[in-house]
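Lecture notes, unit on protein representations.

Consider one protein chain, 200 amino acids long.
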Amino acid sequence: ISRAGGFGWGEKNFLVRSRKLFADNGLSVAVVDAPSDREAQPYLSGFRQTPKHVEDIKAVIAWLKQQANIPVWLVGTSMGTLSAAFIAIQAGPGDGGPDGVVLTSTILSLEGGRPVPAMPLQKITVPVLVVHHEKDGCKHCPYAQISSVMDKLSSTPKKELLTFKGGENRGDPCEALAYHGFNGLEKDVVAKISEWIRAK
């Protein structure tokens, strides 16, 4: 995100391009960029599951709660699910963590790293919504493995899996304009996520 508020290559990201839709559905929205010391290679690689990352996001949550005394949810898509899940494991609402989590296009397998199902998800004690496209073609996100996440969410007060069909599938299967990024389904996906969050 530039100082003028413009987006670079991340503009097509499902959550970034849908930010106004979330606002239109009654939610306050904050898009979190990489920290200033992670804006070059290797970016967030190797950083998402670290205490420093947790502290950074807790600082963002604290700032947001100063702006409006309302629950703060972390919504991560694709590689962002590594961040959202890890942070919710490390910190609950009483410790500066999120009040809820949404995982969209969850990373289910990852060579040389720890995917979401390999984390101690049973430590998450806030509501969790998992959103996935049944034909997600990204090799890291095979829908057939989604139960590996749902089964481990044993301590959350509420959990649900929302499965989507249809839309458009263009380009790299791991990128934002494929089924992986809910291309063509944005309004429906955002409406259902927003409804779920508001109901909590």
